[in-house]
Design a protein that fits this description.
The protein is an alpha/beta fold and 132 residues long. The protein is built from five helices and four strands; from the N terminus they run H-E-H-E-H-E-H-E-H. It is globular and about 60 Å long. 20% of the residues are buried.
């Protein structure tokens, strides 16, 4: 008697991406103070054929959707969770810029916990390298 083999969520995601022909998903992480560098990195990754996921709301720029401080804090929590979803979907992570703040440090740790390869445009800011 054979038993059904159940896939982990990660295996299901990989299988689904393979069936859909999605071969390389990269998520960009980094401070939005480096938004211009993030745009350049997205272009560079896209022309190589990668599907690029990145932060889309720059809360460092005034906008009516986050003008109220209470609403802005709630939005930041939601956007942080969305970005973690992007990390889970990604095959790899590219950290952009020469600055790593608390949010980015947390994203790097999360990606590494998931076993995602993490690369840096500025390798000297890797928290693992600076901790050594």
């Amino acid at each position: 008697m054979s038993y059904a083999q159940y896939q982990t969520p990660e295996e299901k995601l990989a299988d689904g991406k393979a069936r859909l022909g999605i071969r390389d998903v990269v998520v960009l992480c980094g401070s939005m103070r480096n938004a211009d560098l993030m745009t350049e990195a997205a272009i560079a990754e896209s022309v190589t054929g990668a599907l690029v996921l990145k932060p889309d709301c720059n809360m460092k720029i005034a906008h009516p959707l986050w003008a109220d401080p209470v609403e802005a804090e709630a939005l930041k929590v939601r956007l942080d969770e969305q970005h973690r979803q992007k990390i889970r979907l990604a095959d790899r992570v590219l950290v952009v810029g020469d600055y790593v703040g608390d949010s980015t440090r947390s994203e790097i740790a999360y990606a590494r916990e998931l076993g995602k390869p993490v690369r840096f445009t500025h390798p000297g800011v890797d928290p693992a390298a600076t901790a050594a």
